[in-house]
Amino acid sequence: MRYLPNILSVSRIFLAILLLFVALHYDVILPTYVDKNWVNYLSCLIFCVASLTDFFDGYIAREYHLHSRFGEVFDPLADKMLILSGFIALLVLQRASPWAVFLILSREFFITGLRVMVAGSGQSVAASTSGKYKTGAQIAAIAFLLADFFPGGEVLLWLAVALTLYSGADYTIKYIKSVHV
What we know:
Layout: H1 4-24, H2 26-29, H3 36-63, H4 69-92, H5 98-120, H6 129-147, H7 153-179
């Protein structure tokens, strides 16, 4: 049980790679007579299973106090790799706005830089509720756009952009306050 959260994080990295492979190289995997919609559903399923590992590794680590340095580094790395693989697949499949993806990924890189600065100073800025909403919105948008059966996927993507930018501003303000207090 002690290593389960870390195993889930590592599995998320492998699922991110699998997602990208399935979404981009389905023609190598599936026979030509299989409808391409099944690739969409399979990609969505892989993404959703990987997203569930994010939920469960955090839940198990908190519930059983299984915090590790490995988990502190690899959990957010696995999260970013999963979101990145989803967005790369969507860009190649031309199902997501490049501007929306750029804004989301720019925020992620910026906040990762701030987190490194906070860690380097020995301080901590707790994650906020807006960050959880941001993650949920990104996951929903990517899942619906991968499945490609819901016409509101683009709306979900722009909602995710708004929540992503809001949570980034929220985190930045918390960081500035923690440095100047």
